[in-house]
Amino acid sequence: MKERILMVVFVVILGSVLTSALVAVAYYTGPRIERNKVLKLKMSVLGALDISYTEDNVERQFSENVTMNEIKGTSFYVSQDGDIAFEIAGSGLWGPVSGVLALSSDLETIKGITIIHQEETPGLGGRIAERDYLGRFKGKKLAPELRILAPGKAGAQAGDNEVDGITGATLSSKAFERILNSESRKYIPLIEENKQ
Questions:
Q1: Residue 195 parent element (H or E)
Q2: pTM for the complete prediction?
Q3: What whole-number distance in Å separates Cα of residue 118 and Cα of residue 79?
Q4: CA distance 164 to 153
Q5: Strand bridging mode 84-91 / 74-79
Q6: For 72, left (φ over 0), alpha (ψ -120 to 50), or beta?
Q7: 58-65 vs 2-48: helix axis angle to the nearest 10?
Q8: Which of 70, 129, 153, 187 is the Cys-Cys partner for 115 at CB 3.0 to 4.6 Å?
Q9: In which band, very low, low, confident or very high, does the pLDDT at 155 lie, cut at 50, 70 and 90?
Q10: Closest CA to 83 of 65, 70, 99, 64
């Protein structure tokens, strides 16, 4: 009986010590994690707006070139040139996808896209985060809606709103198409309302 009581006391003490250690680690690392998250968002906004920066001057470039606006609890970013950027998020094929979509001041032409997080298959759907793939979207139109076609279908004859998908990742490409179109339909009316 005495051994069981000692074992319970030991488990309670050990649990308390480990819990305290975890709380302390969370307390000290929490602000750093949050600061890195904000910094990553700023880098993504600058990248999508095609504003050059280095790791050393992210904060300065952001404060000098970008203004954050908010309307109805929704944040978006405006460059000095009047280009607009906003966060996008949605479900990919295998998990959440988040990033930043930047539009020219006409709110129709894609200026750039950056991906902050994605869980698609590496080498296939995960290519949605690659700079070369995202570069295909520059200058494309969101009206009437962006279309990601089967690989090779858009090619040289691609319409203003058409982009080739990723070979072997049709479902990831279609999920990305849905994210871009649905997030645009959500943000653009709010931004237009703010312009008036």
A1: helix 170-195
A2: 0.83
A3: 26
A4: 6
A5: antiparallel
A6: left
A7: 50
A8: 129
A9: low
A10: 65
CB contact set of 153 (below 8 Å; sequence gap of 6+) = 162, 164
Once rounded to an integer, what is the mean pLDDT over residues 74-103? 94
Q: What are phi and psi of 110, to 5 degrees?
A: -75, 125
Quote the CA–CA distance of 124 and 118 in Å, as a whole number: 12
Write phi, then psi, for 190 (nearest 5 degrees): -65, -40
pLDDT at site 181:
95
Asked if residue 48 lies in contact with residue 100, where contact means CB atoms within 8 angstroms, the answer is yes
Query: Which two tokens mark 6?
Result: 């000692």
Any bridge partners for residue 148, and if so which?
163
Residue written as token pair 């992210």? 58
Q: What token pair was written down for 97?
A: 């996808």
